[in-house]
């Protein structure tokens, strides 16, 4: 009898527990006590089966249930999702010294060596960031501006030749920004039909678009393996291309040591020879600025060869990865931002006309605006800020990792916790923006018509890991956008239904394909 009662009791308990589990649905796995509560999901897979192709949206939805700061298990690993600008700033800025690591994720298994984007926030990373800026600084604003102007001139001519017929703008956008970055890095540009250009674009696409899939691909389904292989293949293709350019530059420089410094690789190999002088006049960061006396470096190669053959001690073996950062970081992102800006103009003709009027009034029809003049064009500037907000080009930033125990919102996150800054949630937060789904440049203007930038705006992320290409990207986008609007009126192609701002998900978010007509303006 007692045995029967006990059995009955156990069965009832099991049913109760099971129904609790079911009613709580996806909260099957309990969150560890030091992480904020959130959906754990099922064993092994965690929450992955519930994620759509747009995890930033799923995370936005979960925010309504679990608040700004919650945990989610993806595969075996717990991730803490940061939603809204308050929590993102708290982690990445206020506690930036503890929250700026990178997880040891798929990229580290593929990259042979280090690139800025996957490095831990140590002295190497700081040095690589300084090195990066030094390269651009030494290339110089004049050269950078000249390259951008030339490529935008070609784009304008190509659009003119279409004479208002329906076109897929991405063909023009991709070629233009690929040529700009190839001119920066290698002094090389391509014609639209060049197979090398298409190969490069394909490899960069594969590499970038699969990165986002990496963290949500289901193990055991062959899917994870495929994603890994695709990233690997894209990476190898680009690296091979970069290495060929490096060899080319080396041999050119051997033949002619006085060769002009026209691109970043020239600068690198030139810095090679002139390291003393260069250091002297302070164009490059000084060794002490780069923390060269850090103990790790002391034991490393760089410290044992203070005047190594390479500019400021950057190992030539690592050069391809650093160039990859510039190349991949600067390609898809600006393409995406430019495509969002064109889509917005086609969808909002009134905004387009206001920008064209501002350009006519403040710049005139025959003058090409400079980036400095962006401040004389508040409406245009506001429209581009709105493009960055609604475009959400990198909606989940790049994953961060906690590098020392840190207390955020009452939870002591242990070292190693992965953080996902949901930039999308900050940009689409109804508590920060009125009708966030609407495209409206005036949200960036105050009552005097001056540009104001709310705290919740962070397309390039915030804190120590902030995007390295921010200024370059803003300059390129401003110049490309104004060049197009000064010369053309943008119309939808044949009343074709225009996509909304949903976009194709991926590491970078781009609009769904659309066609437009660029009608040349008469002066
Ligand atoms: C519209 C254009 C761009 C957007 C929206 C954008 C956005 C971002 C974001 C959100 C991050 C992640 C920061 C974090 O982890 O917290 C990032 C990192 C980075 N971006 Fe960009 N980016 C753009 C253009 C560029 C360009 C043009 C370059 C290079 C030429 C570039 C190079 C990098 C690099 C190297 C990192 C890694 C920094 C680090 O880990 O320390 N980006 N970017
Ligand atoms: C995190 O930020 C708080 C508030 O600024 C500060 O008191 C604390 O020391 C920080 N913790 C770490 C590990 O940086
Ligand atoms: C590195 O050098 C700077 C200035 O030369 C010095 O202030 C600092 O204490 C040094 N750091 C280490 C770890 O030796
Ligand atoms: C196009 O823009 C250029 C400046 O980039 C200007 O000189 C030219 O007159 C413009 N053409 C038209 C048709 O507006
Ligand atoms: C915008 C948004 O989803 N805000 C949510 C933040 O978290 C609270 C609960 O803590 C929700 O009530 C809000 O809706």
UniProtKB/TrEMBL annotation:
<dbReference type="GO" id="GO:0016705">
    <property type="term" value="F:oxidoreductase activity, acting on paired donors, with incorporation or reduction of molecular oxygen"/>
</dbReference>
<feature type="binding site" description="axial binding residue">
    <location>
        <position position="467"/>
    </location>
    <ligand>
        <name>heme</name>
    </ligand>
</feature>
<keyword id="KW-0349">Heme</keyword>
<comment type="similarity">
    <text>Belongs to the cytochrome P450 family.</text>
</comment>
<feature type="signal peptide">
    <location>
        <begin position="1"/>
        <end position="25"/>
    </location>
</feature>
<keyword id="KW-0492">Microsome</keyword>
<keyword id="KW-0479">Metal-binding</keyword>
<keyword id="KW-0408">Iron</keyword>
<keyword id="KW-0560">Oxidoreductase</keyword>
<protein>
    <submittedName>
        <fullName>Cytochrome P450 2B19</fullName>
    </submittedName>
</protein>
<dbReference type="InterPro" id="IPR001128">
    <property type="entry name" value="Cyt_P450"/>
</dbReference>
<dbReference type="GO" id="GO:0005506">
    <property type="term" value="F:iron ion binding"/>
</dbReference>
<dbReference type="GO" id="GO:0020037">
    <property type="term" value="F:heme binding"/>
</dbReference>
<keyword id="KW-0503">Monooxygenase</keyword>
<dbReference type="InterPro" id="IPR036396">
    <property type="entry name" value="Cyt_P450_sf"/>
</dbReference>
<dbReference type="GO" id="GO:0004497">
    <property type="term" value="F:monooxygenase activity"/>
</dbReference>
<dbReference type="GO" id="GO:0005789">
    <property type="term" value="C:endoplasmic reticulum membrane"/>
</dbReference>
<dbReference type="InterPro" id="IPR050182">
    <property type="entry name" value="Cytochrome_P450_fam2"/>
</dbReference>
<keyword id="KW-0256">Endoplasmic reticulum</keyword>
<dbReference type="InterPro" id="IPR017972">
    <property type="entry name" value="Cyt_P450_CS"/>
</dbReference>
<dbReference type="InterPro" id="IPR002401">
    <property type="entry name" value="Cyt_P450_E_grp-I"/>
</dbReference>
<keyword id="KW-0732">Signal</keyword>
<dbReference type="Pfam" id="PF00067">
    <property type="entry name" value="p450"/>
</dbReference>
<keyword id="KW-0472">Membrane</keyword>
């Amino acid at each position: 009898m007692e045995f029967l009662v006990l059995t009955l009791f156990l069965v009832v308990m099991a049913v109760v527990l099971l129904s609790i589990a079911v009613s709580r649905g996806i909260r099957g796995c309990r969150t560890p006590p030091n992480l904020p509560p959130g959906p754990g999901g099922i064993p092994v897979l965690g929450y992955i089966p519930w994620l759509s192709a747009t995890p930033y949206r799923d995370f936005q939805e979960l925010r309504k249930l679990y608040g700004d700061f919650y945990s989610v298990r993806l595969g075996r690993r717990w991730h803490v999702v940061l939603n809204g600008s308050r929590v993102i700033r708290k982690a990445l800025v206020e506690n930036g010294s503890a929250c700026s690591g990178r997880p040891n994720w798929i990229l580290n298994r593929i990259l042979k060596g280090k690139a800025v984007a996957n490095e831990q926030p140590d002295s190497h990373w700081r040095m690589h960031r300084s090195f990066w800026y030094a390269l651009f600084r030494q290339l110089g604003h004049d050269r950078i501006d000249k390259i951008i102007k030339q490529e935008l001139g070609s784009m304008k001519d190509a659009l003119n030749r279409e004479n208002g017929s329906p076109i897929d703008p991405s063909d023009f956008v991709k070629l233009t920004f690929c040529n700009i970055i190839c001119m920066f890095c290698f002094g090389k540009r391509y014609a639209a039909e060049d197979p090398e250009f298409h190969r490069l674009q394909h490899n960069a696409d594969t590499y970038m678009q699969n990165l986002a899939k990496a963290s949500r691909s289901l193990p055991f389904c062959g899917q994870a393996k495929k994603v890994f292989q695709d990233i690997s293949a894209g990476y190898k293709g680009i690296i091979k291309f970069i290495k060929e350019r490096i060899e080319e530059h080396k041999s050119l420089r051997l033949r002619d040591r006085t060769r002009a410094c026209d691109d970043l690789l020239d600068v690198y190999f030139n810095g090679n020879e002139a390291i003393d002088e260069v250091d002297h006049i302070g164009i490059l960061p000084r060794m002490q600025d780069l923390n060269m006396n850090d103990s790790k470096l002391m034991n490393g190669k760089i410290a044992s060869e203070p005047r190594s053959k390479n500019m400021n001690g950057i190992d030539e073996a690592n050069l391809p990865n650093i160039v990859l950062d510039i190349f991949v970081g600067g390609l898809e992102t600006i393409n995406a931002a430019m495509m969002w800006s064109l889509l917005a103009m086609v969808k909002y003709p009134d905004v387009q006309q206001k920008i064209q009027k501002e350009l006519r009034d403040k710049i005139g029809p025959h003058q090409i605006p400079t980036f400095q003049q962006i401040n004389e064009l508040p409406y245009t500037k506001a429209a581009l800020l709105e493009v960055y907000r609604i475009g959400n080009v990198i909606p989940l930033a790049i994953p961060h990792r906690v590098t020392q125990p840190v207390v955020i919102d009452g939870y002591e996150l242990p070292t190693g916790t992965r953080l996902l800054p949901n930039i999308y949630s900050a940009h689409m937060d109804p508590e920060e923006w009125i009708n966030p789904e609407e495209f409206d440049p005036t949200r960036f203007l105050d009552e005097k018509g001056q540009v104001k930038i709310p705290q919740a705006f962070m397309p390039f992320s915030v804190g120590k890991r902030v995007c390295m290409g921010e200024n370059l990207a803003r300059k390129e986008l401003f110049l490309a956008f104004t060049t197009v609007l000064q010369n053309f009126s943008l119309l939808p192609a044949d009343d074709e239904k225009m996509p909304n701002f949903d976009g194709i998900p991926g590491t970078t978010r781009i609009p769904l394909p659309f066609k437009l007509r660029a009608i040349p303006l008469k002066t």
